[in-house]
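Q: Please design a sequence for this.
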């Protein structure tokens, strides 16, 4: 196992300056090796580096697999089957240590990705912008900033207290904003959570200004960031900060006032008619950002990282690591048996256990992990509208109804469906659990509201004041960074 800063320093330049990708699929398969000095000499080399940023983000240790898995198994809707520490039984129990595989590897991969973004931004400022021209440079720089913002946001979700705890005053993570190319740059104190979110939003605002409205193909519109990607991610960030008025401001840029809800500018985001389509056709307009995978060696999550490996088991796909909790979301009586999303629940006839089949591609597991999709933006907006107005807001009801009715034609919500704003909020939060199960959203929803992580199986509940509510800092960071303190 590589430690954090050694990982960043020794691998950062290698990946940035040697990765060449399939243009449409952002495959991080090495093709050529160039030196630091010449890495920004040609447009093709610069594009290869842009694509390598996505390659780092889609590592199986990060958004290609485990980051999404952790977001679900910390919650109450899955049961650990194998008790295997390598495949995150300690994450499920909410008791990983500083040296745990999840704690060390997620930290390392996130900072590795941040570092190659920083190196790229430094290189563009020094030379690259003059090589590709101002318009394309703005596009590339914006992509790097969006990816860096996503990395820092992701770190804050596990290694720092929620923003609501002290309005961001608690320790966040070290904010590295310049590239590391050698030893001697390890020491950096943790900023506050608020400082982290300030930088995240600065990067996303810059990205919104620099990204194109769209690309030439549906694949690129899904697998590379465009303007609406930055806007969509800002709705998630502001929701995490409980700044609901700003969620509304951002969402209104890409959500029409009335149904059918669509984005009027940029990529024409909209819900798909059938939820199953999102997990078979990965490049629909519902998928705002997804990460492409292929059967090419090195261009898929790798062993014991894949979403299907963790969540599915039908005899040929999956490893039965986590089954559905029979007392979790699938037991909720407000999730009707005729809802199409029930079709993602698979019962293994041999074991009788239930599994999630959203990720059903066989080995080498080439399902596209979803970073964010349009259904989330709609529910983010719905929740924010209710929390701001404290009323049964008509648009919030319509947004909720659009997501529910897409899968359950028997239900169309109206304002008469809810007696109070609290009832509507409860329905929205339930819808999030149903709609996004297996997509890594549950942990964030619990923590941003400072809610207790419920007990499940043999795992005890974790209150916000309990040890284990957030993760400890990676021991490799603590060993190399004398200014970094533990949680």
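A: Design:
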């Amino acid at each position: 196992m590589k430690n954090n800063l050694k990982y960043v320093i020794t691998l950062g330049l290698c990946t940035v300056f040697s990765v060449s990708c399939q243009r449409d699929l952002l495959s991080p398969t090495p093709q050529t090796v160039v030196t630091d000095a010449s890495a920004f000499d040609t447009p093709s080399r610069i594009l290869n580096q842009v694509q390598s940023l996505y390659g780092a983000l889609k590592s199986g240790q990060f958004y290609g697999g485990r980051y999404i898995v952790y977001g679900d198994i910390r919650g109450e809707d899955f049961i650990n089957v194998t008790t295997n520490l390598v495949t995150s039984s300690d994450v499920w129990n909410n008791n990983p240590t500083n040296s745990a595989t999840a704690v060390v590897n997620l930290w390392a991969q996130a900072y590795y990705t941040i570092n190659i973004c920083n190196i790229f931004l430094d290189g563009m400022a020094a030379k690259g912008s003059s090589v590709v021209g101002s318009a394309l440079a703005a596009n590339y720089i914006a992509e790097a900033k969006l990816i860096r913002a996503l990395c820092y946001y992701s770190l804050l979700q596990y290694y720092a207290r929620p923003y609501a705890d002290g309005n961001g005053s608690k320790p966040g993570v070290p904010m590295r904003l310049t590239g590391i190319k050698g030893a001697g740059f390890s020491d950096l104190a943790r900023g506050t959570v608020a400082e982290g979110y300030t930088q995240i939003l600065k990067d996303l605002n810059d990205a919104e200004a620099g990204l194109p409205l769209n690309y030439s193909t549906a694949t690129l519109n899904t697998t590379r960031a465009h303007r609406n990607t930055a806007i969509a991610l800002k709705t998630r960030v502001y929701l995490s900060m409980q700044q609901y008025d700003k969620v509304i401001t951002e969402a209104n840029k890409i959500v029409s006032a009335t149904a059918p809800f669509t984005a009027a500018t940029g990529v024409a985001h909209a819900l798909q008619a059938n939820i199953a389509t999102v997990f078979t056709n990965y490049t629909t307009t519902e998928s705002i950002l997804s990460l492409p995978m292929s059967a090419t060696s090195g261009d898929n999550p790798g062993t014991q990282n894949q979403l299907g490996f963790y969540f599915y088991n039908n005899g040929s796909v999956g490893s039965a690591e986590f089954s559905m909790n029979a007392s979790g979301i699938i037991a909720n009586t407000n999730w009707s048996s005729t809802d199409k999303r029930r079709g993602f629940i698979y019962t293994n006839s041999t074991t009788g256990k239930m599994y999630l089949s959203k990720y059903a591609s066989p080995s080498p597991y080439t399902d596209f992990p979803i970073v964010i999709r349009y259904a989330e933006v709609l529910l983010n907006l719905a929740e924010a509208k209710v929390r701001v107005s404290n009323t049964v807001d008509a648009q919030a009801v319509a947004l909720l109804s659009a997501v529910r009715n897409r899968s359950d034609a028997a239900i169309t919500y109206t304002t008469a469906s809810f007696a109070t704003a609290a009832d509507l909020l409860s329905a929205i939060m339930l819808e999030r659990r149903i709609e996004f199960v297996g997509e890594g959203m549950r942990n964030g929803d619990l923590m941003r509201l400072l809610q207790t992580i419920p007990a499940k199986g043999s795992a005890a509940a974790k209150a916000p004041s309990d040890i284990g509510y957030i993760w400890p800092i990676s021991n490799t960071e603590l060993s190399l960074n004398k200014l970094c303190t533990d949680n």
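Q: Thanks. Anything notable?
A: Residues 101-132 form the longest helix (32 residues). Strands lie at 78-80, 287-290, 322-324, 345-347, 354-356, 370-373.
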